Every structure is written in structure tokens, then in C-alpha cells.
Amino acid sequence: MSTDRIKRAIRLGWDEMSASYQATTRISLHDVHYAPLCPGERELNIIGEVRGKRTLELACGAAQNSIALAKCGARPTALDMSPRQLAHAKTLIARESAPVDLLQSDMERLTMFTDGCFDLVISCFGLEFLPNPDACLRECFRVLKDDGLLVISTVHPLTAFEWDADAKALWVTDYFNPPIEVWEEPTDSAEQKGLTFFRGFQEIFNLLVSAGFQVERIVEPAPYDAQSASETDGKKTPYGGAYWESDRERLSKVPFAIVYKARKPA
Ligand SMILES: C[S@@+](CC[C@H](N)C(=O)[O-])C[C@H]1O[C@@H](n2cnc3c(N)ncnc32)[C@H](O)[C@@H]1O
Questions:
Q1: Which atom of ligand 1 has the smallest separation from the CA of 15?
Q2: What distance in Å separates the CA atoms of residue 123 and residue 125, rounded to the nearest whole number?
Q3: Mutation choice for ligand 1 from 3, 11, 56, CB with most ligand atoms inside 8 A
């Protein structure tokens, strides 16, 4: 299976889904988000101080995380491979007057950046679309300064499995061989559909270590308390909206995302 064909299908799929994703997901421009209905950076404190730092966001979508970082004094660059997602980013960046550099690129190939030019690389919900995450993580290591930080939020491995709404339980059919999700979204690429890859902790941890990183922290964010969610906490999360609220029961029992915080040794 050609990875370029898979990535092309994923790009076309995101072009297709971009308008509805941006309309049904409410994403903050003031706090970095990591997971649906969950607290963001302000509460989780994964990144820390960013003032004056050069940051790179991979799979930025509409670049809300980079805009939030810019509001905290960072100097962000954000990239994505979907032109439609980037069009949303361009609009938001102009509206917010945020100093974010945008570019269209594949996050597995960061050849436009010199070695050691970023203090922080961040990505939220991008890694799961990569046929070759190893290439991306090695590029992240290369473009980071010594002591630089990589923060990646990606789908939790349990997200691969079906939620039984009646039983209020997850059907974990085979943890060691999670299914690859084949997208239903139409693309003009008949020969190849978009794919989502679910990867276990062991695989991602070992890829990070073999790229040279030291893993400092793993976070499995939990949603704000569902009891009070609709009144107050629903407004506090930097990543929510109607689409995610309809899945709240599952999300409050099974983590949707896992965040890896890793450092390039000094
Ligand atoms: C779920 S969206 C996340 C967007 C944004 N990070 C957010 O949290 O809203 C996934 C994004 O990954 C992008 N993407 C997928 N594969 C990519 C690749 N190889 N290089 C760059 N971007 C990619 C898609 O175009 C899409 O915008």
C-alpha cells in the first residue's frame, strides 16, 4: 500500500470534512486543547511558559492552538496538509491579529526547517493519521533545540473499540490487534480511502525513545464532571461542542486522547 496514496486520501478527506468539523467543534482561541470536553493547558500545565519561544504546530487544522500560544507570547508556526483547514486558519489568524506563520506541508517531512530551530513542537490529533509516525517523530527531534519539548496529543488506543450504549461498556475485541478505521467520508480517490491508525502506548513510547526523546509525562485527560458540565464546565473546556456532547457518556468512562510530553535531551 503506497503511503503517499493514503496521505492523499486523508488530505482529500479533511478537505471534505473541514467545514463541518469547524462548525460542530467549539475550539478555544485562548487555551491549548488536548482532548474533547477535557481541561486544556491552563489546568493541565503540560507545556508551561511559552513567552518568546518559537513553536511549531503539526496538523494544526484551523490553528486554534497556535493562536492560543501566540496570545501567550509565543512565536508560532503552524502547518497542515489540508488547504481547506488552512483556509479556516487563515481567517481566524487575520480576525485575531495573531502572529502565526502558516504553511501547507506533510508533517512527516519537515525539510523546510533547519536543525534545532524550535523550542516546542505540538500536535493535537494528527499522529493517528500518519502511515509512518516514526518519520515524523525523528523530524520533530531534528527541528527541536536541545532541551526542546514535544507535546503530542493523539487518540487513545481504546478509541479503536466500539461503545455499547445499552450496556454502557466498551467492546475491547483484541487490544493487541486494534482495527484500522477506514473512512466513510467521500473522497475523489476511489482506489484509496482515508485511514485512522490506533497505536498502543508501547508503540508510541518506543518510537519516541528510538527517535532520541526522553518521555517525561503521559496524561490521559478526563472530561470535566458531567454533573455540572452543561451549566459551567461545558463552557470551560477548550474543545467541545454538539458533536462531542453527544458522546459524553463514553468520553466520561473511557479516555479519548493520550498526551505524550517528551524532551530532546540537553
Ligand atoms: C482532527 S484534525 C485536528 C486539527 C487540529 N489539530 C485540531 O485539534 O483541531 C486532523 C488534522 O490533521 C491533518 N493531517 C493529517 N495528516 C497530515 C499530515 N501527514 N501532515 C499534515 N497534516 C495532516 C488534517 O489535514 C487535519 O487538519
A1: 25
A2: 7
A3: 11
Residue pLDDT, tens place only, 90-107: 999 999 999 999 999 999
Q: Which of 29, 73, 30 is nearest to 50 (CA)?
A: 73
Q: How many residues would you count in the chain?
A: 266
Query: CATH assignment of 3-260?
Result: 3.40.50.150
**145 dihedral zone (left: phi>0; alpha: psi -120 to 50; beta):** beta
Residue 176 CA to ligand 1 centre (angstroms): 26
Average pLDDT on 169-174 reads 95
Q: Give the angle subtended at the CA of 124 by the CAs of 156 and 215, to the nearest 5°.
A: 70
The response to whether residue 10 sits with its C-beta less than 6 Å from ligand 1 reads yes
CA–CA separation, 235 and 74 (whole Å): 25
Task: Report the residue among 7, 84, 86, 125 best suited for mutation to probe ligand 1: largest number of ligand atoms under 8 A from its CB.
Answer: 125
